TrEMBL record:
Keyword set includes Lyase: no
Transmembrane portions of the chain: 12-32, 38-58, 70-88, 100-118, 125-145, 151-171, 183-203, 215-237, 244-264, 270-287
Protein name: DMT family transporter
EamA domain segment(s): 13-140, 153-287
Family: Belongs to the EamA transporter family.
Length: 309
């Protein structure tokens, strides 16, 4: 197996790890009793705290961004903050399956944005894989969608969160062409957390007085879905196109729904399980036949990948 093949399979493995990691997010959020904006704020601030030991290594790059890069970074961070605010609120109003299934619209929005801004292209098999995954994702949440009430509001909030994270992903793709994963993630997480902090201050939400159980959940959210999920996907943006990275969200409804069935006792039907199989099939087709996934990474990419491993 040559170096490029090893790099490709390493990227696949990291991609799968990221999908599993982000799937735990909805479970931890449901377990917490704090305001969702507070959960998101501490999730991101704690992630930055965990990243600090490496700050010295990147000390020069951290403060050498251009004015345009700072502007795009601010936009990316604010969009990430809005994603957490909208989507995490949706989990309080509707089921995990319904909330996460709406996130499957993200790759479609990212693909359209990539085509418009970056002239990216998707081949026929990528579109087939995406279509299968979207159909399967819709089937998972079909039994939980409601035409009115809190569930409808939850669905709408999840849609707003999906739009926000798609914009965040497009900003990130542009920035990752010239900025390391560490610097991008550090500032984006810090900006998103600070935006949420301002929101919390404006709404009079308390920053202290939480039980140790809540702090434990904040930390789990920082480690599992943020570092092993969002950070990892932002790192992968340098080697995989934004549409391919955003496809990871299509695997989330499958694993999240199973976890919700096991840990939250939410109903999971045979139809939803079969739909989950369809999603995984679609994701596999997209990864295996996606032209950007099969494109060898650069020598510099190989070096960074070997360091990460």
């Amino acid at each position: 197996m040559n170096t490029h093949q090893k790099s490709f399979y390493s990227l696949e493995l990291l991609y799968v790890i990221g999908i599993i990691a982000i799937s735990f997010s909805s479970i931890f959020i449901r377990w917490s009793e704090a305001e969702v904006s507070v959960i998101a704020m501490y999730r991101l601030y704690l992630t930055n705290l965990l990243m600090l030991p490496l700050a010295w290594k990147y000390r020069h790059e951290l403060f050498r961004l251009t004015g345009k890069q700072w502007l795009l970074m601010a936009g990316s961070g604010i969009m990430l903050g809005l994603h957490f605010l909208f989507w995490m609120n949706s989990l309080r109003l509707t089921t995990v399956a319904s909330s996460t299934v709406i996130l499957t619209l993200e790759p479609i929005l990212v693909m359209l944005g990539s085509f418009w801004f970056f002239r990216a292209r998707a081949n026929r098999m990528m579109i087939v894989g995406m279509s299968l995954a979207v159909v399967g994702s819709i089937a998972i949440g079909a039994g939980d969608f409601r035409a009115s009430g809190d569930a409808l509001l939850g669905d709408f909030l999840s849609l707003l969160g999906t739009i926000a994270v798609a914009v965040h992903m497009l900003f990130g793709k542009h920035l990752r062409e010239s900025i390391s994963a560490y610097v991008y993630n550090f500032w984006v997480f810090a900006i998103a957390a600070s935006s949420l902090a301002l929101y919390n201050v404006g709404n009079g939400f308390t920053f202290t007085g939480y039980a140790w159980r809540e702090w434990g959940l904040f930390l789990l959210l920082a480690i599992v879905p943020t570092l092993f999920g969002h950070y990892l996907f932002n790192w992968l943006l340098k080697y995989i196109n934004a549409t391919a990275v955003s496809m990871a969200v299509l695997g989330e409804p499958v694993i999240s729904s199973i976890l919700a069935w096991m840990l939250l006792h939410e109903r999971l039907t045979v139809v939803q399980l079969l739909a989950g199989m369809l999603i995984l099939c679609g994701v596999w087709i997209f990864i295996r036949f996606g032209s950007d996934f099969k494109k060898p990474v650069s020598a510099a990419g190989d070096a960074e990948l070997s360091k990460a491993g």
